[in-house]
Specification:
The protein is mainly alpha-helical. Helix content is about 55%, strand content about 10%.
Length: about 160
């Protein structure tokens, strides 16, 4: 499994630890194990020229991963119309002066409402609901019972 080094930040081991690379110890050499292939990194006593190769390999893997993500994005966009993405457009920002003008206008509107005592103009008032007397409700209920009795009598004759 992984061989852990307790190295200072500036050393090669510290850089690899910071990158989250999986390393294995083998004498004076470290091996960076990638998804595709293993790259040999020299020990700290050897030349650091191979560090550029490691950086190049990591960049290459990052670019491959970016291409895979782009392909997945295209597939998802084709399946559901691109609605899964976050908004990419910039939100509009109002200046402080614009916000102050809007706030002043709103305060003026509220002051006008308070001056009028909360009454609105040009409002059509709805007529009050009329309540039915108890006698009227009893007449309607009796008529409905009579209708249902007539329907049930007709059903008994046909059955």
């Amino acid at each position: 499994m992984g061989f852990q080094h307790a190295s200072p930040k500036g050393t090669l081991d510290g850089i690899l630890d910071k990158l989250g690379a999986q390393t294995r110890g083998s004498g004076k050499r470290l091996f960076l194990v990638s998804a595709d292939e293993a790259v040999t990194i020299p020990g700290e006593g050897e030349l650091m020229a191979n560090l550029a190769g490691v950086v190049q390999q990591l960049r290459k893997e990052r670019d491959q991963a970016a291409r895979v993500v782009e392909r997945l994005d295209a597939a998802l966009a084709a399946l559901n119309g691109g609605s899964y993405r976050k908004r990419t457009g910039n939100r509009r920002h109002l200046s402080a002066a614009a916000r102050a003008r809007i706030a002043a206008a709103q305060r003026a509107r509220w002051a006008k409402v308070r001056r009028n005592g909360g009454q609105k103009h040009n409002v059509v008032s709805m007529p009050k609901k009329k309540t039915m007397s108890a006698a009227a409700r009893k007449k309607i209920a009796a008529a409905q019972r009579a209708r249902w009795a007539k329907v049930k009598a007709a059903q008994k004759k046909t059955a």
